[in-house]
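PROTEIN ENTRY
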Amino acid sequence: MLLGCVVGQAIVAAGWPESLSRLDALSQSRVKLLDVTGAVLLFGGIVLLVKAQFDLGASWRIGIEEGASPGLVTSGLYRFCRNPIFLAIVVTLTGYTLLVLTRLSVILLLGAFIGIRQQVLAEERYLLRTYGDAYRRYARHVGRFLPGVGMLR
């Protein structure tokens, strides 16, 4: 549903930009800065997403598969962040929001962040059950989304 809303809004923004009222009432130079920043975040987030999925390798999955134990990945981007795929999704959606700054895009970004946060907490419980002390040691040294932030105690 989130993807459908984002794609739909992007199509409307590309085809009928005047139909979307931007939330900003900024000068042209500030709008340009938002657009450039948004584009950098959008495409940078996509690159980060692809890299994080490659780093996850055979351990990549959608959702939680109880009983599965494909191996705890702590290398690549996972040395700096326990959830680089989710971080990449938030970065990408933040870029999109800056490019198409409407009420809907802000609501989608906030909703995505809340949903991602819930999924991360569920996955952390699974990883603790599955990998126990190995995951605890890893999570004590690597931040949840950003280096040094959100480490387990």
